[in-house]
Structures are given as C-alpha cells and as structure tokens.
Amino acid sequence: MMRITERGFTLLEILITIIILTVGVIALTSAFSSGLLASTDVENVDLALNIGQAKMEEIKDTAFASLADSGPTVDANFSNFNVTVDVSEGDDPMQADVTVAWNAKGGQASITLTTLVANY
Amino acid sequence: MECQGWTSEYYLDDIGGKLLNMNKGLTLIELMISIVMFSILAVTSVYILRAVLLSWSSAEERTGIDISLDRGVEEMVRDLREAKEIQSTAGYDEIRFSQDQSTYYIYYLYNASDSYVPPPVFSEASYELRKAALTGDIDGTFTYGSGQLIITDVLAPATSDLSLTGNLLTIDLSVTRNDETIRSRTEVRPRNI
Predict the structure, then answer these.
(1) Do the chains contact at B37 and A40, CB–CB below 8 Å?
(2) Chain centroid to CA B3
(3) Annotated domain spans of chain B
(4) ipTM above 0.90, yes or no
(5) Looking at residue B22, what is its pLDDT?
C-alpha cells in the first residue's frame, strides 16, 4: 500500500529558522536606520553651509583692516554649530577660512569654506 | 540479485514499513512552542517595522522640505547678491531690490487669507514666499499674491525673518510640513552696493 513519505521539522530546525529570520530582520532594520542617519547628515551639512556662507558675507561686509581670527564661537541661532574664522593676517589678498563644526552621530563633523579678500 | 521480481507494488511494500516508522511529525507541545515563538517574532517584527517606517516617512518629509527650502534660499541669495539697490523696512519682512536700477522686484510673504495692508500683521500660521515685479521704483506697488512662487509653508514672522542690517541682508526661513520643521538661515552682502 502507498505511504506518504514526509517528515516534519524538528524543534531544532525551527529554532535555527527563527534565528536566521531574526538576523535578517535586524540587518534590514539597521540598513534602514543608517539611511535615516544619512538623511540627517545631509540636513546638517546644508545648514552648516548656509551658516558658513552667512559668515563669509559678513567678512565681505567688514573693512579689510578689521578682519581678524575669531572663534570657535557657538552660532547665535543654531547652538549645535560653532564657527571659526581663520585669516592670514598681513597678506594681500588675504586668505579667509570659515570652518563650521557640529556634533554629529559618532563625533564631530565640519565643513570649511575658503576665500581671498583683497584690500581695494 | 535478479531484477525479475521488481514491480512497483513490491518496491513500495518492501520499504513502506520503514517509511511508516520514519513518518514522525511534531508533537503537539513542539508545535505549540514553535507557534508561540513565531508569534513573538512576528509581533516584535511588526513593532520594529512600524517604528522604522514612521521614522522613514518623517525623514522623507524632512528631505523634501530641505530640498525646496535650500533651493529657494540659494535662488534668493544668488539673486540678491547681484543687487545694486536694496531696501527692507523693519517689521515688514520683505526685500525690495534692483539689479539694474530700472526694474525693481520684491520678495514678500503671501497668504490668501491675509492682505497687504502696511504695516503687516502676519496673523496666519504660514505664508508663501513670492517674488514679484514692482511698478515704479523701489517704493513701487505690486499685486499681492502675484509673482513667482519661491517656497511654500514658510512660518510667519517673527519665526521667519527677512531683514536688512546696514548692507547685510538676513534670510531666516522656517518651513513646516506635516509637523516637520526645518530652519535655514543665511546672510547676503550684495556685491554692487
């Protein structure tokens, strides 16, 4: 007579399956969260660029003789960001570096803008 | 061994006995344990996935705001940097300017429920930032609501701020969509003044 030749899973096999599934789910979730962190990074870089650009415009609005190093100063509007100005005094044209640094996940991040200012 | 006696029935009968003994499934207790474990896994997965999807949609919203805000601010900065003449009355949160001193423009905040009656009150929650041409010179008039749309959903002043200090323009805009707010602030010193 015909017998159905099937075996069930053992408990061990099911446990292994569950572990593999869990590892998969965790991997998938962490992929999502690193994507989310990256989008926060983009937001911060955009903001830092605007802060740095604002400082650059202030430098353009300052008399050549009054340009000097400053900072790091905490930004008046965004407390997580600080601004450092570094100028090469005595040079003409003078090089001005504006560095904006902020606390990101996993340490400090920063951007630097550089320009030359002439005494005219 | 001769293959003569090999029929399908004979074969199945011969090994059928062994297969019968091997046909072991799960016991009820094993089945219940595995169902419980699967349920726990499924429920936690659903919760984790729900949290992930929620923060994903919030990130998506923020990215969208960031893109339109940054694009708008950049457009204004590039436009205003070339200005030869600028004017912004304190409390008006508008910027009047000209690049060639013959055509004049204004950046202003517009809301359909509001009207342009100086001095502005900004009683609505959010406004559209628009750029319109002025009739006449820098003190000229314009049609409220006309002009090019730069950014939508800009929070009303004083949260947002368009102002002039000396020759330095401040552009400080906060945009809110679906409970997500992003603020962007920069300054412009028009080069030709």
Answers:
(1) no
(2) 76
(3) 56-188
(4) no
(5) 52
